[in-house]
Amino acid sequence: MKRDGKRRVGVAVSMLLGLGILLGSGAAWSAAEPPAWGSGPYRMLFEVDSAQPAAWNMTLGAVAHIVKRVGIPPARLEVLAWGPGLRMLLKDAPDAMEVSILQMRGVRFVACQTSMHRLHIRPRQLAPGVMVVAGGMAELMKRHNAGWAEVKM
Questions:
Q1: Is 11 helix (H, G, I), strand (E, B) or coil?
Q2: Taxonomically, which superkingdom (predicted)?
């Protein structure tokens, strides 16, 4: 009978240790979860290299949706245009008004200077408030290394 009692105590101790390990790993798991939606900080770079209106409309729609759902801050959003996509940041582009509205809400629009040179686009042709960076790929790499999420449209 004594042996049976010790066995029960051993089983109980083993179960408690197992439960402790499970609870401990659950706490570690919950600590690794991302912050609650809307509590940020969120950083997202949208890369647009297409002159297709559908790609640009999709980008502007996605950005507007994030601004509405998450807000700025906590979201930091940047739209990087290079190559043929750069034409969508011209002041006479069809979506120039929407770009302006999103800028007023805190979205940053960036043009690649290398692409501007190749396409013979001068800074004065860009929509007001568009930032110019030396190279689109360098900007992409900087944002990537800083932990920004990237979406290619």
A1: helix
A2: Bacteria
Both tokens of residue 122?
């001068």
What does 88-107 look like in DSSP terms, one character per residue? GGBTTSTTHHHHHHHHHTT-
Using the predicted structure, report yes or no on whether residue 105 has a pLDDT greater than 50: yes
Mean pLDDT of the residues in the chain: 81
Q: What is the pTM of this model?
A: 0.72
Alpha carbon distance 121, 6 (integer Å): 85
CB 79 within 8 A of CB 109: yes
Say if CB 57 and CB 95 are below 8 A apart: yes
Instruction: Compute the Cα dihedral for 46, 47, 53, 58 and give only its sign.
Output: negative
152 SS3 class: strand
